[in-house]
Amino acid sequence: MTEINTDKLAEAFVSALAIDAAEVNDELAYSQHPKWDSTAHMVLVAEIEAAFGIMLDTDDIIDMSSFAKAKEIVAKY
Amino acid sequence: MQIDDYNNAAVFSQFPVYGLNSVQKQAFLQQRLNWLTHHHAAHCPEYARLLTCIGEANSPMCNIEHIEQVPPVAARLFKDYGLKSIKDDEVFRLMRSSGTSGRQSQIYLDADSAKLQSQILVKTLQHWLGKQRRPMLIIDAKETMQNKNGMSARAAGLQGMSFFGRNHCYALDENMQLRIDEVKSFIERYHNQQIFIFGFTFIVWQQFIQALQSLGLKFNLQQAILIHGGGWKKMQQQAVDDKTFKQQINAQLGDVSVHDYYGMVEQTGTIYMQCEHGHLHCPVWSDVVVRDINSLAQLKNGQQGLLQVNSALPTSYPGHSILTEDLAVIHGEDDCPCGRLGKYFTLHGRVPNSQVRGCSDTFS
To answer: Is 0.90 surpassed by the pTM of this model?
Structure first.
């Protein structure tokens, strides 16, 4: 897997979900954290796309259910 | 593909959307719907009582031999009772129907069923839209999404569909009036890409197409796609049929393929998309039956009656087989000229005296 800039990804999470940097870890998961709901999810997608200059497809959006998963997905691009 | 993976969502969610013939589909759905009937009888006391009342509970626990025999629950029972097959602390999301009068349906989802619904919706729409997300013009107001007190069906529809877009532009303001400048600059920016337009039928018609007409504004879109749904009652009151709707859209917007869809909050995730030949199509995870309004006997293809919708998805509430208040005609199975397999049908209004509750129809 390509190395990705985890800090940059974490920043995208902090800003899109409006959460504390300390809350961003591999256990952070969609629907587990009160602020990561479906509306915030689309904001997060836009944030990640802008930060990494990529365009996620619809499968990625559905699969991206945790911070750990997001790292895998971003690494594909 | 193993048809007997009926209980493994990871497997059956990968079935080809319109790719199983009636024999293969029957084999999958029969087992799945039987399993769901048992599951809900065991976890939802009201549903178990319902089965007992109709004499099904003890007749080898509702082991149907044909998918058309699954006992359907009347849609209005979801208004009267909080039917669910999960514990209170497992409720992840509560969905409400869009009806404005009387009680609303309440549909309880746990995290797994919400996830499965999203996956199936995505799988179905990928068939029509591809996997690449498109610049998306939403014919609604951003404010529609922002009601946090339980998600309305309209908001859930917008939310689900927004996954397929990027660079979203809301075409209407909080008063549901056209945001002319925003729409113009969106279309200028993306006019040579395949724009995805989504909205509820009557809102698209009255607040968008008619507004553009009165302003004398026309666009020349290329290979755009419009998906719309939510009911035709208000359109019929204005004597606008499917053909007129499509003609006017093409006259105003250019090259846009227009697809109606049918779906309901009681079976979110399952949608029936309209093909190029004007038929609504069952995806592989669902099936329809048409019944006589009075006797509820199953009708033949070509006859109009009450529509029953069966879905493989609902596990958190007993909504795998629902008798709607919509009138429909099934035209055939596996032989639509568009080539997609499964049953295909058209809708013909609602049963007299039923409540107006379509997403499109509750807007005035």
So the answer is: no
Q: What is the DSSP letter of B209?
A: I
Per-position pLDDT tens, chain B of length 364:
455 678 888 889 999 999 999 999 999 999 999 899 989 989 999 998 888 777 665 554 455 666 677 888 998 899 888 899 999 988 888 888 766 556 788 889 998 888 898 889 989 999 999 999 999 999 999 888 776 555 677 887 888 888 899 999 999 999 999 999 999 999 999 988 999 999 999 999 999 999 999 999 999 999 999 999 988 888 888 889 999 999 999 999 999 999 999 998 899 889 999 999 999 999 999 999 999 998 889 999 999 999 999 999 999 999 999 999 999 999 999 999 999 999 999 999 888 765 555 666 666 5
The length of chain B, given as a count of residues: 364
The boundaries of the domain holding residue A29 are: 6-76
Q: Is residue A1 part of a domain?
A: no
Q: How much is the ipTM here?
A: 0.76
Q: Using CB atoms within 10 A of its CB, is residue B194 exposed (0-12), middle (13-18) or buried (19+)?
A: middle
Interface of A with B (CB under 8 A): 31, 38-39, 42, 46, 49, 55-59, 61-62, 65
For A57, the closest of B92, B125, B133 (CB atoms) is: B133
Alpha-carbon Rg for chain B, nearest whole angstrom, is 20
CATH number (domain holding residue A20) = 1.10.1200.10
What is the 8-class DSSP label of residue B207?
A: I
Count structural domains, chain A. 1
Contact between B282 and B288 under an 8 Å Cβ cutoff? The reply is yes
Between chains, do B126 and A58 touch, taking CB under 8 Å as contact? yes
